[in-house]
Every structure is written in C-alpha cells, then in structure tokens.
C-alpha cells in the first residue's frame, strides 16, 4: 500500500488525544494530526517535554499531565476532560525494565502502564468518544506481541518476571483489548471503531527511557548514536498509527510490510495465534475491567 501521511483526510473540527506525545512515534502522530487540522491534546508524564514538543508543531495543540502508571492520575485526567473526543491514540508505554517494578497501584510496570492505564483511560473517556459521530480508539502495540502468550492473564507476576516476555505480554494485551473493544462495539451497534497497529522497529526515545531499557547507563548513552543507523525513523514508525487513527478498517491491525514487518509501507500486520484468540481476549477484558474498576457503556 502506498499510503503516507500526505494522504490523511482533513481533520478539521476533530479532537485527538495522543498519549506519550512528547517524543518518538507519539510526537510524530500528534504533529501530523495537528498539521491536518485536528485539535491535538498531548497527554504526557513529562509536561515540560510535552510543551517543548507542542511548540514544535503547527496547528492547535495543548498539553495535559497524565501518568499511566497511576490510576489516580488517569482518573484525574478524565475528570478534567471537557467536550467531545474524536480520536484516542493509546501510544505511551515503557519497555523492558531489567528488574521487576510496580505501578503505584501494585501492578507490574509494563502491564500496568502499557495496558491497564490505557484501559482505564479509554473507559473513562468513553462518554466523550461516543459524543462524536465517528470516534476511533487506537492501540499502539508491537512486533514484541509475538513473544506474549496466555500467561498475559496473570499480569506479569514478580515470581516469573523476565523483561522481554513481560513486555510482549503487555503488547499482546494492547491488541486483545482493541479487538475485544471492537467486537463489543459492533455487538452494541455503537459508532465506535477500535483498531490496533505497530510501528515496526523504529529509532525512538523509548529505548532510552530510564523506566525501561534506559535504566542501563550504557544503553541510555549509546542509543542515540546506533539507533538511527540500524532502524527506521520515528516519523516513519508513526505511519501505522496515523493510518489506524483515520482510515483503517474496524478491528484491523496495521504495520509495516517489509523485512519481517520491521519497516516499509503500511498494510495488514500479522497477528500471533494468541492475539487471534477470542476467548483469551474476553478473559483479559473481564480481568482488566475488574483491576481498573472501570466500565464500558457502549
């Protein structure tokens, strides 16, 4: 598929929320949506960094504080939200902390941040989404979801913690959540569209994040030098997110098409057998809503 950001439909009059939009894929997603007319809210843990990012963009933007590792922060954010919301891009995340860590609510950091934080955010903002004629929710997953399995239901417990498989489970959870949300929206006759995507392998600041791989000083220092040589740009990595946020089919999964989905033009992504498991998706949905204490009135 030859689709590129220049093909984005006009977003004038639409409001988009992108989590983790202060850097990397989230930044480029927010930038393109704003450039095409959307009012874009950058929801960031680091507000100062978010304001720097917003200042580099054209169009209408604003920055809001959001820490997805805190359900209290998510609830406070949702309580501050006013007005309709057309597009929610659940992009922010943490990747492979070398040692087991927890959110302030007691969940493993990757599972709690990448998955539960976004589940809670989506559920709490659902009334704002459903107040628009064609709302979209996008889950930004990863090739790493192929490393996840049905142990995702356990929430990455400390006793079995390993950085990469647990990250894979959190990304598998993103996809299962999106697919289950779309299934339930369709069954309810809702106008909501849920999609998922992955960026391939991109040079982003996620690798340098001190909450993840960047806790290793060597990786944190070396990453800015070797990543642009080895991987595609964060700008290119944002293309699947932009496609999913605007024109992708309901329930679809979008990713790059070349070199085992690591880079290239956007198209259908390949799902693992666990990501295609409807029973697993339903089980995870029920567990996640119980853990976050949110509801989805579709």
Textual characterization of the structure:
An eight-stranded mixed β-sheet has the order 3-2-1-4-5-6-9-10, sandwiched between helices. Strands 7-8 form a two-stranded parallel sheet. The longest helix has 25 residues, at 163-187. The relative contact order is 0.15. Helix 3 (71-80) runs parallel beside helix 4 and helix 6 crosses helix 10. The chain is of the alpha/beta class. It is 40% helix and 16% strand. The protein is built from ten helices and ten strands.
Which characteristics define this entry?
40% helix, alpha/beta, single chain, 298 residues, two-stranded parallel ribbon
Shape field: globular
Number of helices: 10
Report, as a whole number of angstroms, the end-to-end distance.
33 Å
Widest beta sheet: strand line-up? 3-2-1-4-5-6-9-10
Q: How many strand segments?
A: 10
Entry summary:
This protein has ten helices and ten strands. It has helices at residues 24-35, 47-55, 71-80, 109-124, 126-130, 163-187, 217-230, 234-237, 239-246, 278-292; strands spanning 15-19, 39-44, 60-65, 87-90, 136-140, 193-197, 202-203, 232-233, 253-258, 263-268. Strand 7 (202-203), helix 7 (217-230) and strand 8 form a beta-alpha-beta unit.
Describe how the helices and strands are arranged.
Layout: E1 15-19, H1 24-35, E2 39-44, H2 47-55, E3 60-65, H3 71-80, E4 87-90, H4 109-124, H5 126-130, E5 136-140, H6 163-187, E6 193-197, E7 202-203, H7 217-230, E8 232-233, H8 234-237, H9 239-246, E9 253-258, E10 263-268, H10 278-292
Parallel strand pairs: 1-2, 1-4, 2-3, 4-5, 5-6, 6-9, 7-8
Antiparallel strand pairs: 9-10
């Amino acid at each position: 598929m030859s689709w590129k950001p220049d093909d984005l439909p006009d977003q004038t009059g639409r409001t988009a929320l992108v989590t983790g939009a202060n850097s990397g894929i989230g930044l480029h997603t927010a930038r393109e949506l704003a450039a095409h007319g959307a009012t874009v809210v950058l929801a960031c843990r680091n507000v100062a960094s978010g304001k720097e990012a917003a200042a580099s963009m054209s169009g209408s933007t604003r920055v809001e504080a959001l820490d997805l590792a805190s359900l209290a922060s998510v609830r406070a954010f949702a309580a501050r939200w006013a007005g309709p919301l057309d597009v929610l891009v659940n992009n922010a995340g943490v990747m492979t902390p070398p040692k087991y860590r927890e959110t302030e609510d007691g969940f493993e950091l990757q599972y709690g941040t990448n998955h539960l934080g976004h589940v809670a955010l989506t559920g709490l903002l659902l009334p704002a989404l459903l107040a628009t004629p064609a709302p979209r929710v996008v889950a930004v997953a990863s090739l790493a979801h192929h490393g996840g399995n049905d142990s995702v239901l356990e929430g990455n417990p400390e006793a079995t913690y390993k950085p990469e498989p647990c990250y894979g489970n959190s990304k598998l959870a993103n996809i299962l959540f999106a697919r289950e949300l779309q299934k339930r929206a369709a069954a309810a006759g809702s106008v909501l569209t849920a999609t998922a995507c992955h960026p391939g392998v991109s040079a982003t600041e996620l690798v340098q994040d001190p909450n993840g791989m960047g806790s290793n000083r060597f990786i944190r220092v070396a990453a800015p030098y070797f990543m642009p040589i080895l991987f595609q740009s964060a700008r290119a990595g944002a293309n699947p997110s932009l496609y999913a946020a605007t024109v992708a089919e309901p329930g679809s999964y979008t990713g790059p098409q070349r070199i085992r989905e690591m880079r290239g033009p956007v198209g259908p992504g390949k799902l693992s057998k666990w990501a295609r498991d409807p029973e697993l998706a339903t089980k995870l949905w029920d567990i996640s809503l119980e853990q976050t204490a949110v509801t989805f009135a579709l």
